[in-house]
Design goal:
Structural class: alpha+beta
Distance between the termini: 35 Å
Order of helices and strands: EHEHEEEHEEEE
Largest sheet: 5 strands, mixed
Radius of gyration: 16 Å
Amino acid sequence: MTLPFEVGVVVRDLELMERFYCDVLGCRAGHRSRVPESIGGPAGLGGELVVVWLDVPSGGRVKLILPRSSPVAAPVPAVPTGRLGLSYLTFHLDDMDPVVAELRAVGARPLSEPAVVPARGRRISFWGDPEGNVVELVDERGPTRPGA
């Protein structure tokens, strides 16, 4: 591999999702590009697209992809592993508390209560983003307890 890993997320509202991943999770917008039908069609992407590359502070990129035709939304599964295929994006944080405090205000919803769970000396938290993609937050500040 020659560059950091990238993941593509198909979205309905590009501005909403860009704000979510940048303002809440700390990604930075890299560049934006229109992919014409002449490239998107033959490449198997379904036609014309707008793509925004978001740099993840720890490395890698999230590509937000807005198709010309509106995509069909998939509901957030009750359990992220309750379906085949890509299940969730994981973001490692120094401290998830400020992020968790902001998530509900921007349209995200926790997938469990309590929203933050101790797990093997870390804390984890799973959320549905404003369009139903599952996001896992992980930090190393969790209490260590037997069996956690």
